[in-house]
């Protein structure tokens, strides 16, 4: 509607944005060493297309759970239609079961954005229970991980989530005493591995979050964000000034672990940015869409 000029989205939401005519402009990057290679066009695209890992996390003490026996377990998701928390794991389950009845596959769960009277909203909490926004206490990466800690059997998140919420990195009461060794990853081959071995135990690689805009505003948005990044990027003193990549609220403007933004090639389509395989997978999952406003 033109009420905003730009927003940063994960791959699942970027797919929907593309269907609505929005275009990718800038990509988040999570490796500070890559920021030193900041260039233009295809170099930036090649780096950002490496993406991040979508993983399935369980408690190390819950020894009986594997990827093969998740049926009947309690699941925690970032939100319906999001990449690591929904599209990738549910797409893999759909390819196995050929059923969209995910609320019958898991006994209970929290999947913000699912039908509110469903078992996949049973574990949710907050003033807007099961809403796909920050008013739901278990929304997003950190929310899904908290859901695992407090109520669930498995959480579907990005590979960085466990690191960001253990070993004292998250001072919140529910997380401050958690240790990395308390959690493990489920591998698609049925094995389990420590969370440090995510590169050999993941569900799929996901495209980095991306800033989208209306096509006629793309150049202006890119220029403004590059200028803001220079002034308020990773080198800013967050104790005395505004910081682009840090906020009291988790992942407010961008993912909190964003190190820099990369300008994407002019005219790039959302299909090229997300990649053919991911676009096809999300398209299949949209057949199962149960998102509700």
Automatic annotation (TrEMBL):
GO cellular component, alphabetical, reads: early endosome; extracellular space; plasma membrane; recycling endosome
Subcellular location per the Swiss-Prot or TrEMBL entry: Secreted
Keyword Repeat listed? The answer is yes
Keywords of this protein's UniProt record, alphabetized?
Answer: Ion transport, Iron, Iron transport, Metal-binding, Repeat, Secreted, Transport
Spell out the InterPro entries in the cross-references.
Answer: Transferrin-like_dom, Transferrin_Fe_BS
> Which SMART domains does the record cross-reference, listed alphabetically?
TR_FER
A molecular-function term among this protein's GO annotations:
metal ion binding
Chief location of this protein?
secreted
Q: A Pfam family this protein belongs to? A: Transferrin
Q: Is Disulfide bond included in the keywords of this UniProt record?
A: no
Q: Which residues form the signal peptide?
A: none
User: What Gene3D superfamilies is this protein classified in?
Assistant: Periplasmic binding protein-like II (3.40.190.10)
Superkingdom of the organism of origin: Eukaryota
Native species: Myodes glareolus
Write down what this protein is called.
Transferrin-like domain-containing protein
């Amino acid at each position: 509607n033109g009420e905003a000029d730009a927003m940063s989205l994960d791959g699942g939401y970027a797919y929907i944005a593309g269907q609505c005519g929005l275009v990718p402009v800038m990509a988040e990057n999570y490796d500070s060493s890559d920021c030193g290679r900041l260039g233009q066009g295809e170099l930036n695209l090649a780096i950002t297309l490496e993406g991040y890992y979508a993983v399935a996390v369980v408690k190390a003490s819950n020894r009986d759970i594997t990827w093969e026996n998740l049926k009947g377990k309690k699941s925690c998701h970032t939100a319906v239609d999001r990449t690591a928390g929904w599209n990738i794991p549910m797409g893999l389950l759909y390819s196995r079961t050929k059923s969209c009845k995910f609320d019958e596959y898991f006994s209970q769960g929290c999947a913000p954005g699912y039908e509110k009277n469903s078992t996949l909203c049973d574990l949710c909490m907050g003033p807007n229970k099961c809403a796909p926004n920050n008013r739901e206490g278990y929304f997003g990466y950190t929310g899904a991980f908290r859901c695992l800690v407090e109520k669930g059997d498995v959480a579907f998140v990005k590979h960085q989530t466990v690191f960001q919420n253990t070993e004292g990195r998250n001072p919140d009461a529910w997380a401050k005493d958690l240790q990395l060794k308390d959690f493990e990853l489920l591998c698609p081959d049925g094995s389990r591995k420590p969370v440090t071995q995510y590169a050999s135990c993941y569900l799929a690689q996901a495209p980095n979050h991306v800033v989208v805009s209306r096509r006629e505003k793309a150049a202006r948005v890119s220029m403004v964000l590059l200028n803001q990044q220079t002034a308020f990027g990773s080198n800013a003193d967050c104790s005395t000034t505004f910081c682009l990549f840090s906020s009291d609220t988790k992942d407010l403007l961008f993912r909190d672990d964003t190190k820099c933004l990369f300008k994407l090639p002019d005219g790039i389509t959302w299909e090229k940015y997300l990649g053919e395989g991911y676009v096809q997978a999300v398209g299949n999952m949209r057949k199962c869409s149960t998102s509700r406003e």
